[in-house]
Amino acid sequence: MGSPPGPPTYGGPMYYPQPIEGMLTRRNVFALNALGLIGIYLGILFRLATSDLNIRGLAHFLVISGGMLGALASLAGGLGSKRTSDLQNIGLLIWAGLLLTFTFTAFAWI
Predict the structure, then answer these.
(1) Average pLDDT score over the chain
(2) Where would a tag sit more exposed on the chain, N or C end, judged by fewer CB atoms within 10 A?
């Protein structure tokens, strides 16, 4: 006796989910850092423009969220990217530390 027939084969390409490390391209890390710096910049501009307490709260939010976004993107790029060299990883980690220092300094000033 022969073996029973197997399930029908799928003719299309196989789908494999992309790992999260594939999203850590240099362009994405750069874009997230740019968005973070724009948030910090806008927060400082709002603080310089007015002394209203509501605008100050918005400035605090923009500075902290922008700094954290940029620092986390740099940290993820420095620790998780397989396409970067060791020197680039060290540079991203140093940049994350400097960005957090500047963020906390700007937050304290606001």
Answers:
(1) 88
(2) N
Instruction: Give the separation between CA 75 and CA 87, rounded to whole angstroms.
Output: 14
φ, ψ for residue 9 (rounded to 5)?
A: -85, 150
> What per-residue confidence (pLDDT) applies to 82?
77
pTM: 0.78
Reading the block at residue 94, the tokens are 């140093």
Enumerate the domain spans of the chain.
43-109
Cα–Cα distances (Å) from 91 to 5, 76, 78, in that order, read: 57, 12, 8
Q: For 40-85, how does the pLDDT look when each residue is reduced to its tens digit (9 = 90+)?
A: 999 999 999 998 999 999 999 999 999 999 999 999 989 887 777 8
Q: In one letter, which amino acid is 59? A: A
Under 8 Å between Cβ of 63 and 104: no
